[in-house]
Amino acid sequence: MGSGGSRAAQVPDAERIRRETGFSQATLLRLYHRFRALDSNKKGYLSRMDLQQIGALAVNPLGDRIIDSFFPDGSLRVEFPDFARVLAHFRPVDDEDTGTRDPMQPEPLNSRMNKLRFAFQLYDLDGDGKISRHEMLQVLRLMVGVQVTEEQLESITDRTVQEADEDGDGAVSFLEFTKSLEKMNIEQKMSIRILK
Amino acid sequence: MLRAALPLLGLPLAGAAAAEEPTQEPGSPGEPLPGLVLFRWQWHEVEAPYLVALWILVASLAKIVFHLSRKVTSVVPESCLLILLGLVLGGIVLAVAKKAEYQLEPGTFFLFLLPPIVLDSGYFMPSRLLFDNLGAILTYAVVGTLWNAFTTGAALWGLQQAGLVAPRVQAGLLDFLLFGSLISAVDPVAVLAVFEEVHVNETLFIIVFGESLLNDAVTVVLYKVCNSFVAMGSANVRATDYLKGVASLFVVSLGGAAVGLVFAFLLALTTRFTKRVRIIEPLLVFLLAYAAYLTAEMASLSAILAVTMCGLGCKKYVEANISHKSRTTVKYTMKTLASCAETVIFMLLGISAVDSSKWAWDSGLVLGTLFFILFFRALGVVLQTWVLNQFRLVPLDKIDQVVMSYGGLRGAVAFALVILLDKTKVPAKDYFVATTIVVVFFTVIVQGLTIKPLVKWLKVKRSEHHKPTLNQELHEHTFDHILAAVEDVVGHHGYHYWRDRWEQFDKKYLSQLLMRRSAYRIKDQIWDVYYRLNIRDAISFVDQGGHVLSATGLTLPSMPSRNSVAETSVTNLLRESGSGACLDLQVIDTVRSGRDREDAVMHHLLCGGLYKPRRRYKASCSRHFILDDAQERQDKEVFQQNMKRRLESFKSTKHNICFAKSKPRPRKAGCKKKNGVANTAATNGKSPGDLGFRDTAAVILTVESEEDEEESDSSETEKDDEGIIFVARATSEVLQEGKVSGSLEVCPSPRIIPPSPTCAEKELPWKSGQGDLVVYVSSETTKIVPVDMQMGWNQSISSLESLASPSCTQAPTVTRLPPRPLAAEEPQAPLELRPSFAFPPSLAKAGRSRSESSADLPRPQELQPLMQHEDQSHLSPGTASSHWCIQFNRGGRL
């Protein structure tokens, strides 16, 4: 995957990024190579196009949303530190993370909460901190596929929202979102082994 | 099994059978018969199947007895008890016959007893879990088994060289390796029997169990290779043979898996076309799976692997294709067969152990083997886990490793394999048999007994059972996609990537090919969960006697229900999807929807007992086979109800309570009866397809309002006498039909007289908007209602009570409620002209009291009907007559 140079020294600002993301040297290097490979004309950042050209991402129902999450606040380019920061959500949780963390420091990016927050913002398109019924419907439409009729989809949506909605406002807040996933092993489900 | 069972139970009876022998040549012309024989003993003709049946019966009865005491079974695993029972039975036989002739026959075991168990475990294997842990499972199954076999064999040989095994055990290195190969494999039957009762967490379970299933290929190969090496003699084994041995490992395992997958494909494809012969669906599943097993066995591939893969591969498509009933049948038959086979296996194991003539005891060998299998298993697990943990996202901790080492149970497979050894080639067979029996007994009894306390003591994470929720299902899918996407971005094509690719492939091609269209449409996992949640709600709703407001309320305490969209009713949905499970529960969500009200009325009527609406999960299930029966019954019902109606109308005419058209009714009812059901169906054949049922038949219910009797003198009676046409369907098309039928050009359908208050009235007050519910509100009712719903419940009760209280004045006429056929009819019920159609007096009274109370009720405004918009918009009041035409489906053949 490393079509560019392969020396560690090339990662700019490596120490700072590592501190922030918790990636190992090797992983960071790997990501950097990948970053360079995706960067089609060596402009030093990734544009939306660069990510969209990844073949499998195009067929992924959530592909667009994932790409969007790399470009917060309508920015058009993603630099390597941001790239690494997004991917850091998927770093597996180590023992060191939970054990010897300095309470003064902000929560690591791969904490359960941050993993959930990442997933949450994929649902919450308008960023108002709530998954509205409409947003839920959109996600479900992406996930469920064509076999289910619109009407059925609506009722699934209703039920899904009702299930999670505890304060009865017809939308799922982040708190309710985490609650509905209480029993799930998020640390395990939202981690990729190679991103140590 | 057949032959196996013979000697045991046959013994006491053999004498009797032999004595009968001469007299048992039926119809042989040469012999002068002593006339007609009244009683003839034909034992030997039924002997074999009889014994098998008895045998299984004994095992099953034993199982029942074991489970009589919870205390015993909670401590002692069933497998232990069965082995002990076998020992006792074997002892009895030994005492009676003076010799033990019986043992678990390898042929029986491999051909008949093992397949059901493996099929069961493969079919119900949690595939996601299996594939998530596939790496670990395969490592343990392949490397672990090889390791166990070689180390155990070598160590035993070393033990012999060291002189700790008596010299009379004549075995070389190869013999010991052969023995090691058969004793080292973890046994699926034993593991399943013990671990099912232990409830460790899923990951641990799937690793141990998956290993025990998948190691079969390794065991088979090792056993065969070693066996042939022994047969050849170690001197003649060449290097190419070793290579062949290694190659055969791949051939046997991959070949077995391939056979399984091919049959899975065939099975899925076949079930796609069984739409018209639903009844053979379960049979197909078993036949093709068994064929896979036999085919693999025939080609000396790994049969266990074949069946496992077959079950694993076909399940998704088969479950989607076959009908609900078939699914249940498959499930239960599979479980029954598997548990039956398991029971028999353990019992036979116990019995075979009694046969000491095949034993040859050597303490050194037995103790050495016991020690080595435990030691090397533990060592192997620790080493492999250490390696695996480098790659695993969630490392297996020490406790897991302890359980895995300790859970390496040996069982009937090892025993059957050791019995299969050829004594002429393996002189130490008897010693091996004894050792195997001891090992199996030790692992099943000692380890089986202690593993539960051990798991408790080590605080192994138990499996927690929680209900699936839509959110979890949805989010899990989201996470899968997110991870796949992230793997794409990172550029590492790992597990998630391939799984995603596979799912896309499956969706695009496989499912299209293997699932029938209708199934494919509803076969989305999220939809599936949604559907199952609804079913569960419905079941729990029914389980609770239907008293709780809504079972949905249990899971969704804070439903913002009333504002949801009209189209969300499950009933509607199910209509559309064609699966007609009766799920009225969610109607609470959609009180305001006209369709739901109409549904409510329909339900109301159906519950009210026209013909008991058979639960129809699939509209066409088994139709061929129950058709006649059902139709007969229905015809009878039609007849009876017609008679009832005739009697009533007779009575009412006598009392000069007029309903329009009361006279023609009997005749037409009669004609209806004669002409049968097809008539009705034909007449209304064009009823709207969105009912979701294939064959719909419009049935016009003629229902008199209670005013006919009770308020005949009031001012509105005139209009009421004219009655109201109640049309269940909101569509104008139906209205047309309704009008037509309202004028009784269509033969009237049988009169419905509910035998009891409909449950809809009892529990779903909002549906009919009837105040008379109060009568049925018991004090228990409120207790069952969950706390968070009690307030609402109480409110509704009190409001209903206040409505029903006598102080209330008479009902506003405008708001008269359509969906009350029940109350409307019952005033006539008490007429008992003929005892054969008599109503229970209490019911009749109840009906009357209800109708009385309801007559007084001012209808709550919000519950106003049904009729309001439909009636007034589509029906001119003039056409209204005293008939409530309700169009509904009465099942396929009515």
From TrEMBL, chain A:
Residues covered by the EF-hand domain: 26-61, 111-146, 152-187
Superkingdom, taxonomy of origin: Eukaryota
Alphabetically ordered keywords of this record: Calcium, Cell membrane, Cytoplasm, Lipoprotein, Membrane, Metal-binding, Myristate, Nucleus, Phosphoprotein, Protein transport, Repeat, Transport
GO annotation (BP), single: protein transport
Molecular function, one GO term: calcium ion binding
Main location as per UniProt: membrane
Entry GO CC: cytoplasm; nucleus; plasma membrane
InterPro entries assigned: Calcineurin_B_homologous, EF-hand-dom_pair, EF_Hand_1_Ca_BS, EF_hand_dom
CDD domains reported in the protein's UniProt record: EFh (cd00051)
Localization annotation: Cell membrane; Cytoplasm; Nucleus
Keyword Membrane: yes
Family the entry assigns: Belongs to the calcineurin regulatory subunit family. CHP subfamily.
Protein's name according to its UniProt entry: Calcineurin like EF-hand protein 2
From TrEMBL, chain B:
Gene Ontology biological process terms in this record: regulation of intracellular pH; sodium ion import across plasma membrane
GO cellular component terms, A-Z: plasma membrane; recycling endosome membrane
Span list, region Disordered: 827-882
Keywords of the record: Antiport, Cell membrane, Endosome, Ion transport, Membrane, Signal, Sodium, Sodium transport, Transmembrane, Transmembrane helix, Transport
Highest taxon of source: Eukaryota
Membrane-traversing stretches: 48-68, 80-97, 137-159, 171-195, 204-225, 245-269, 366-387, 399-419, 431-451
GO molecular function terms noted in the UniProt entry: potassium:proton antiporter activity; sodium:proton antiporter activity
Membrane topology of the entry: Multi-pass membrane protein
Gene3D superfamilies per record: 6.10.140.1330
Location in the cell: Cell membrane; Recycling endosome membrane
InterPro entries: Cation/H_exchanger_CPA1 (IPR018422), Cation/H_exchanger_TM (IPR006153), Na/H_exchanger_3/5 (IPR018410), NaH_exchanger (IPR004709)
Signal sequence interval, chain numbering: 1-18
Residues in Cation/H+ exchanger transmembrane domain copies: 56-457
Family according to the record: Belongs to the monovalent cation:proton antiporter 1 (CPA1) transporter (TC 2.A.36) family.
Name of protein: Sodium/hydrogen exchanger
Organism annotation: Pipistrellus kuhlii (Kuhl's pipistrelle)
